[in-house]
Structure formats: structure tokens, C-alpha cells
Design brief:
Layout lengths: L20 H8 L5 E2 L11 H8 L14 H11 L6 E4 L1 H13 L5 E5 L5 H8 L3 E5 L8 H6 L5 E7 L11 H8 L7 E5 L16 H6 L3 E6 L12 E4 L2 H8 L9 H12 L1 H24 L11 E5 L4 H10 L2 E2 L1 E2 L4 E5 L3 H15 L2
């Protein structure tokens, strides 16, 4: 039997998530494995979220609110935007797919960085679009380089700030200058999944004002990272009403499940938890910085909950050798790895095993 698949799938590989802990335990006969591969929250999620979820288990036979009304209203109050300017999704991953389905026609061009979140390029190709890849400059987005690649075929520009995997940022001043030069018919998909971890004052923490000033900007946020809800899948986008309405046309009817909606609403209310993970992340980052400097490994300073580091050895080999020792990281190609910032205990174990692998 010969099946004729869409030509857009040629050359595409399935997305490969970080290796599960249980798989590594089975493969190497380990009792304990630490996962620092997927930028997950080492503290889990808020206790208040867990309590609310446990109290909501009796309602699982009922379809979720397809409009996510209560979640949109909670976000509206929190962010001071109209409910019609908010669209929840099953994590940022689904929103990336929805944006691409809404906007990209065959041969449309989509601009992105060479080292950034891989779903941008994958969803572009799936829709028959043409990825226009601009190399990073000093490990961050080259905004001038992006501007130089704009043509009359450009449909979307992807900006991940802080960037994954490098953790670097573009400043508010740089962004405003950039936004002012992008034609208004080109959508700027601004992904700020890691915004809650940023420490620098020149980062645009208030990105809502961009949406209000520039109708072609769509801001994406997630509950997976700082809020610790990666396993339940919930995120959202903020944009002008017309843009949100059109993205909503391609959304599945019950894309954000009931528990995800409840968890997100509860998480929004627990600001103390987010402050706690910010502190844990900052302390862990500073510890890893000191250790990397001591063993003379280069890394660009990160404003996220992960660090992009050059281990000066084949990343795939380091990945395997660390797994054998009970630590999972993410190989990024060449001699670069990405390590998520964990608890102090997890960070210390990672450094201990990394030194063993590198012979430092």
C-alpha cells in the first residue's frame, strides 16, 4: 500500500521532548534521576493549585468551557485588557500552531532566528511557508538582520524574549525601535514564555503596552514555566480583537481542559509562589555561573530558567554520559548544551557529574 502524504512533511522530524526520567532509570538501572532538560519548575506548582484541582475531580465527565470564560475574565482583570483580546491555548506550543494555521499560506515567508524554539520553523514548513532564518548576533536576536530580510512575502516574524535556548534578551529600547520599522501588515509573534525569570531593568516587563500601540503584535505567555503547570498544558495570547477572532476560528472547540483552566486561574492568584521560584532560580543561576567560570566553560548570560553552555566536547556524548550518571540535560548540537536551573541540590549534582564527564 502506498500512501501519498503531504509534500510539506518531507524532511520534517517529530518534535523530540526531553527524555523522561523513567526511561533513563530503566535504561541505566538507576534509582534516582534528575531532569534538567525541559526548563520545568523545580518547585512543582503552587500548593493552592493542587488543593483546587483535588476539589475539582468530580467534574471530569463534563466538557470544559470551550470559551474558557472564567480564565479569560481572570486574565482580563489581571492584565487590564478586554476579554476579546485574550485567547487561551493548550500551552504555547498549540498557540504557535494556531498562529501558523491562521496566517501562513504556501510560499509565505516567516522570519525567525537560527537558534531559537524549533516549533517556529516546523509549523512554518507544515503550512507550506518558507522559513527565513537570521543568525543570532552575540547569542541574541539580530533585529537589524531581521529587518533586512523583510519582503512583500513576509507574513510573520517570531521573537522569543528571553530566547530559548540561549536565555538572552532584547531590550525595550531595541524592541520599540524595531517595532516602529516593521510594516503593519506583518504579524510580530512575541513569545515571552520566560518573562517571570528576568532580572534586568531594561527588559520590557510591560509588553501589554506594545499590543495597545501596535495592532500587528501578538504577545504569547505560558503557565508552564514560572507557574509550574507544564503537565497540564495552558498558555494564552494577547492581541487586537480582529487578530484574536481569526486565530479563534482555527482553534479546537475544547482545547484547554477543565483542570487546566482551574489551575491557571488559581495560579494567577498565588503571586507568592512566583516570587519564590524567581528567588530559587536566581540563586541557582548564580551558583551555576560560578561553577562554569571555575571550570572555564563559556555561557551567554541568561535571563531565563536555563543556561546555554559550551562544554567543549561533543554535546551528544556529554548528554549520554550524564544520563548514565543520573542527570538529564538537553544537547543543542556541536559542543553546546542547555541545562535547566533546578534546586540547589539538583544543581550541585549536575555540576559534580559534569566535572566527571569533562574530566575537570
Amino acid at each position: 500500500m502506498s500512501i501519498d502524504y503531504r509534500k510539506e512533511l518531507n524532511g520534517l522530524e517529530p518534535y523530540k521532548p526531553g527524555k523522561p526520567i523513567e526511561d533513563v532509570k530503566r535504561e541505566y538501572g538507576l534509582q534516582r534521576v534528575v531532569k534538567l532538560a525541559s526548563n520545568e519548575n523545580p518547585l512543582g506548582c503552587s500548593k493552592k493549585v493542587k488543593e483546587k484541582l483535588m476539589a475539582s475531580l468530580d467534574d471530569l465527565a463534563i466538557y470544559p468551557d470551550g470559551n474558557a470564560t472564567n480564565l479569560k475574565e481572570a486574565l482580563s482583570r489581571k492584565l487590564d485588557v478586554h476579554v476579546d483580546e485574550i485567547l487561551p491555548s493548550s500551552g504555547a506550543d498549540e498557540m504557535i500552531e494556531l498562529i501558523s494555521k491562521t496566517l501562513i499560506s504556501p510560499e509565505d515567508e516567516v522570519i525567525m532566528a537560527d537558534i531559537t524554539f524549533p516549533r517556529y520553523v516546523a509549523t512554518t514548513k507544515i503550512m507550506g511557508g518558507v522559513p527565513v532564518v537570521v543568525p543570532l548576533k552575540d547569542y541574541t536576536f539580530d533585529l537589524d538582520g531581521i529587518l533586512s530580510k523583510i519582503t512583500d512575502k513576509t507574513k510573520i516574524i517570531w521573537i522569543c524574549n528571553p530566547n530559548n535556548p540561549t536565555g538572552t534578551i532584547v531590550t525595550e529600547e531595541e524592541l520599540i525601535k524595531f517595532f516602529d520599522q516593521v510594516p503593519s501588515n506583518i504579524i510580530i509573534a512575541y513569545d515571552e514564555a520566560y518573562r517571570e525569570f528576568v532580572t534586568r531593568d531594561d527588559y520590557p516587563m510591560d509588553s501589554i503596552k506594545f499590543v495597545k500601540k501596535y495592532p500587528n503584535i501578538l504577545v504569547m505567555r505560558t503557565f508552564s514555566k514560572a507557574y509550574g503547570l507544564a503537565g497540564i498544558r495552558v498558555g494564552y495570547a494577547i492581541g487586537n480583537k480582529s487578530l484574536i477572532e481569526n486565530i479563534n476560528k482555527v482553534r479546537g472547540p475544547f482545547n484547554v481542559n477543565s483542570l487546566a483552566q482551574i489551575a491557571a486561574i488559581t495560579a494567577l492568584e498565588d503571586e507568592d509562589f512566583v516570587k519564590k521560584i524567581y528567588k530559587v532560580n536566581l540563586e541557582g543561576k548564580n551558583y551555576l555561573y560560578e561553577q562554569f567560570k571555575e571550570i572555564k566553560l563559556y555561557f551567554p548570560p541568561s535571563e531565563a530558567n536555563h543556561i546555554y553552555v559550551n562544554v567543549e566536547k561533543d554535546a551528544g556524548e556529554v548528554f549520554i554520559e550524564l544520563q548514565k550518571r543520573g542527570v538529564i540535560i538537553r544537547p543543542m548540537g556541536g559542543t553546546w548544551i542547555r541545562v535547566s536551573i533546578g534546586t540547589l541540590e539538583e544543581n550541585k549534582l549536575f555540576i559534580e557529574k559534569l566535572k566527571e564527564v569533562l574530566g575537570k
